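Internal tracking record. Fields below are filled automatically when a chain is submitted to the structure queue. Please do not edit lines marked as system-generated. If the sequence contains nonstandard residues, flag them in the REMARKS field before resubmitting.
Queue: standard
Priority: normal
Entity type: single polypeptide chain
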Amino acid sequence: MGHSFAYLWANWSPLGTFCPIYAFDSLLLALAIEARERLSFWDSLIVAAAARGRASLLLSEDLSHGRTLAGVRVSNPFIE
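SYSTEM-GENERATED OUTPUT FOLLOWS
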C-alpha cells in the first residue's frame, strides 16, 4: 500500500535531509491558515513562511491591508 501525502511530504525536502520537519510544519500551518482565513494555498504558504520566520510585518498588495494573519500584520506599501 502507498504512503499518505503527509508521510511523503514529511520525508521529502528540497534540501535533502536538512529540514524535513520544518517544511512539514510550515505546510500544516499553511493548510490551517488556508482553511481558517479563506485564502488561497499559495497566499497561505507565504503567510506561514512569514509566521515561521517570526516576521511581524508582511508587505503585500494582494492581501488585505491592516489584517493580521497568524500573528503577522499585512501592509500594502502602495496605499498612501
